[in-house]
Every structure is written in structure tokens, then in C-alpha cells.
Design brief:
Strands 9, 10, 11, 14, 15, 17, 19, 20, 22, 23 and 27 form an 11-stranded antiparallel beta sheet that branches. Strands 6, 16, 18, 21, 24, 25 and 26 form a 7-stranded antiparallel beta sheet that branches. The protein is globular. A hairpin with a 5-residue loop joins strand 31 and strand 32 (432-441). 8% of the residues lie in helices and 44% in strands. It is mainly beta.
């Protein structure tokens, strides 16, 4: 009897071991915060810290980390006082936000709107409240909310040794972030809500950013293995006609290294070659319509471009792991901060990080009006890079090749969905003539397709079917199009 009970208990545990879960953990991973909400399923783990401005400080696929976290800020909890100087930025790391445009958030010396760094504190540094925790049968989630952010914020004027003093609140808004995971995928679903809690109309957006792990070890400068991928198209260009902007000059690069790393000598040809340039990490077009940027610890500067396919990705080449963000489609009729929907920032702060940034449009919000912006993060193991395409099911890293003589199919993918991979062949009336189960797949293993179909066909779909039989299209093509 005891043996039977043990077997039943084992079966029970196995059945539920891969379900999604959320739990509150004290001093998670020795981060020293009292409350960290940890969301897990078979593939991913997320950690949300309300006292660290509600930031997501962990998003892992298995044991592969995507986010950089600043150990100097462990356990810190700050007030919402806006009297902060440039060297007082409380950067916890992880996944965060900045209100846009950042250039007009502060009160300048002459009474005009101005940029201030650090960005506004209430929405960026101060503790968030937990407004909802969901534990449903097939998903779990958490919602956090900022305090009421007032603008303009004061700005420190070094010459006067004083902060400017805003005379009134001209803007008041709050930010809320809901995230949810499900049991059979590596996806994280985000809903961002910006609410104008004041009476006057405001023009605001947000920039959400992920600060990524960018070295395999802090002692190694192997940033070329930690990259961002951006899809681009000539039909989406900057206002001046350029495809992208790099916010680094040879002078700023040289000055940064000379001040923060080691002394440089302009009479030294090696120094000039290495550091009197805009940086060599903006790799460029590594596949048709795909731009790559890698991390360089000796560089501080940003990159702006329009993502033509509404995704941006971070990849760890050493682990063949990608972390992807998809978001609402770029609308050229709307206004965006700096005219773009994404940016990448190369930061040499602390141990350094590569930052992927997503920008919403600038919304016109009347008093008490709110707007939402949806974003999805997802992760997958792959067999090769660069990343060529992203969809709701997974990623393509080697495009499908079809040999018409042998009906032979080859391709490589990564999937966000656990299930079985099928090749579905259809005739020219779009009726299925062959359906072949290829293999079991999951986000934890890259996918190689190398197979021949028995029958000739007109269309082919590459499909992932989850354990409930729901189908997700990973790839497809029409024979005549190849």
C-alpha cells in the first residue's frame, strides 16, 4: 500500500511540476529585498521587485540570464524625492521605463522645460505598489503601479549650487505594468498603462528598456558575443533620410575612454585607431534587412532606428539563446520620441550592459484619460545566428530551403511554444495531402529540419502543436514563390 501511495505521489508531482507558479520570496538570491515575486514555469523564471521601482530584475530561459542587475543597489529602497543630482541615479538594472520625451521633464534654470538625468524618480526609482496578483489554472501574473509622477521635476544647477523650484504641478500621471506567463511557453505578456491623473492635457509616452548581461565574466571583455538584432527597411528612415543614427562621435568615444578607463595618447597610432572613432560595435547588416550591434565596454552611446517588423532581440552567442521583444506596429502617422520605435544603448556603467529599448508613440491624453501599450517578451534556444525573422510562435535562423527534385526541406528555428513540430503539405486547393510529425520541440532546444516529404505539394506549413492540440504556425511558403 505504501509503495502504491508513493507511486501516486510521484505521478502527482510529475503532473504538476511543470505548471506555472508565482510566489513571494524574502531575500531572493541574496538580493536583500524583503519582497520579490517570482514567476516560473518549465522554461522561464521572472523576478519582480516592488521596492526596486517595480522592476523585473530576472528573466531567465532555464539558467541563461537575459538581464543585468546592479549589485550595488541590492536591498535599496528610495523615497520619491525628486531632488537628485546626476551622480545619484538609482539604477537597479533589469527591465524598467522612462517617460518620453525625457528632454522636457525638468524645469531648467531659465524657467523653460529641460532634460534632467536621472529621469523622474517617482516613476523610475521609487517603490511601486502591488495592485493585483493572478493565479489561474493556466496562467499567473502580477500588476505593479507607480506613485503619482509630477512634472516638471527640479534640476540641479551646479553653478548656483541649488535645485530649480517648480512653482506648480503642470503634469501628473501614473504608470502601471501588468505581466503574465502561461504554462507551455517562454512568453511574457505585458500591458503598460499610462494614466493622466491631472486635469490638463499632456503629451507623453514611455520607453521600456531591458539592461542585458553583456559579458560571460566581468574579467573578460567578450562583448562581441552579446548582441542586439533589429529588422529594418529602406521605407522607414529617419527624418533626415538616414537609415539610423549613432549617438557617438570620435571625440566623445576618445573622451569617455580617457576619463573612465585609462589615459590615452593621440600620438599613439594604436590608441587613435582603437578609440578615435564612433565605435566598431555597430556591426551593420549581417543578413538582408537585419542590423547587429554588439557590446563594447569602452563605449557609451546610443543607436536609433525604426524597427520595420516591430521586434527587437538580444542574443547570447555563447549559449545560442535569444530573448525577443515584439510590440505594436510602427505607425508613421504618429509621433515618436526621436522619430523611432526602438533604440539600443551601449553602457559602460559598472560592469556594463547592452540595453534594448522600445518606445511607444507620444500620446495626447486629456485629464483622467489612460492609454495602454502591449508588448510580448519571449525566449528560445537556437542552433545558429543571426536571427532572421520573428513571429508569435518562434524565430527563424536559417530560412527554409526546398529542393524541388527531391521534395527535401531544410531549415533551422527556435520555438517559444512547447509541443510537437509538424510539416503540413497542401495542394493548390489548400487541402492537406500530407502531415508529418517531425519531433517534440520546446524553447530549451534549437530546431533543425532536414527531411523529405513523400508527395509533391503546392504549399507547406511548419506548425507547432501544443499538448492541447492548438496549432501555431512557425513558417510557411508557396512552392511557386521559391
Amino acid at each position: 500500500m505504501k509503495t502504491i501511495l508513493n507511486v501516486l505521489l510521484l505521478l502527482f508531482c510529475c503532473h504538476f511540476s511543470h505548471a506555472q507558479a508565482i510566489k513571494k520570496v524574502d531575500n531572493y538570491k541574496d538580493w536583500k529585498w524583503e519582497e520579490t515575486y517570482v514567476l516560473t514555469n518549465e522554461f522561464i523564471s521572472l523576478a519582480v521587485v516592488p521596492d526596486a521601482a517595480g522592476r523585473v530584475l530576472e528573466y531567465n530561459l532555464g539558467d541563461i540570464q537575459s538581464l543585468w542587475i546592479n549589485p550595488k543597489e541590492f536591498g535599496q529602497k528610495y523615497s520619491n524625492s525628486e531632488k537628485v543630482k546626476m551622480n545619484q541615479w538609482r539604477n537597479f538594472g533589469g527591465y524598467r521605463l522612462v517617460p518620453t520625451p525625457v528632454e522636457n521633464c525638468a524645469l531648467g534654470k531659465n524657467g523653460d522645460r529641460s532634460k534632467r538625468w536621472p529621469p523622474p524618480v517617482t516613476i523610475g526609482d521609487a517603490p511601486y505598489s502591488i495592485t493585483d496578483v493572478k493565479e489561474l489554472e493556466d496562467k499567473v501574473g502580477i500588476t505593479v503601479k507607480s506613485g503619482e509622477q509630477h512634472l516638471p521635476v527640479p534640476k540641479w544647477i551646479p553653478k548656483d549650487k541649488a535645485f530649480t523650484k517648480p512653482s506648480k504641478v503642470e503634469e501628473a500621471f501614473t504608470y502601471e505594468r501588468s505581466l503574465m506567463i502561461e504554462k507551455n511557453s517562454s512568453k511574457v505578456y505585458y500591458i503598460h498603462t499610462l494614466t493622466n491623473v491631472g486635469e490638463e492635457t499632456i503629451n507623453r509616452g514611455i520607453m521600456t528598456t531591458s539592461q542585458h548581461q553583456s559579458w560571460s565574466d566581468v574579467k573578460l571583455q567578450d562583448g562581441e558575443n552579446f548582441v542586439a538584432y533589429i529588422p529594418f527597411s529602406p521605407k522607414y528612415k529617419m527624418e533626415d533620410g538616414e537609415q539610423y543614427h549613432i549617438g557617438v562621435t570620435p571625440e566623445s568615444h576618445w573622451r569617455y575612454v580617457n576619463r573612465n578607463r585609462f589615459p590615452l595618447d593621440k600620438n599613439n597610432p594604436e590608441h587613435v585607431e582603437k578609440y578615435f572613432n564612433i565605435g566598431t560595435n555597430w556591426t551593420g547588416e549581417v543578413a538582408p534587412g537585419i542590423f547587429e550591434i554588439h557590446f563594447d565596454y569602452n563605449l557609451m552611446g546610443g543607436f536609433h532606428m525604426i524597427s520595420s517588423e516591430s521586434w527587437i532581440a538580444y542574443a547570447n552567442k555563447l549559449e545560442n539563446t535569444v530573448f525577443v521583444k515584439t510590440f505594436e506596429k510602427y505607425n508613421p502617422q504618429l509621433e515618436y520620441d526621436h522619430g523611432v520605435n526602438i533604440a539600443v544603448f551601449n553602457s559602460g556603467m559598472a560592469t556594463g550592459y547592452l540595453e534594448t529599448e522600445v518606445k511607444t508613440p507620444i500620446y495626447t491624453l486629456k485629464g483622467k484619460e489612460a492609454v495602454t501599450f502591449k508588448e510580448t517578451h519571449a525566449a528560445a534556444k537556437v542552433l545558429s545566428l543571426p536571427l532572421l525573422s520573428v513571429n508569435e510562435t518562434g524565430v527563424i535562423t536559417k530560412r527554409l530551403h526546398f529542393d524541388k527534385q527531391t521534395n527535401h526541406i531544410t531549415a533551422q528555428y527556435g520555438t517559444f511554444i512547447k509541443g510537437d513540430l509538424y510539416l503540413v503539405a497542401l495542394n493548390d486547393q489548400e487541402k492537406i495531402i500530407e502531415e508529418m510529425k517531425v519531433k517534440a520541440v520546446s524553447p530549451l532546444k534549437g530546431i533543425d529540419v532536414d527531411i523529405a516529404l513523400e508527395n509533391s505539394f503546392s504549399q507547406l506549413k511548419v506548425v507547432v502543436k501544443d499538448e492541447e492540440g492548438k496549432e501555431y504556425i512557425l513558417d510557411s511558403f508557396v512552392v511557386g514563390d521559391l
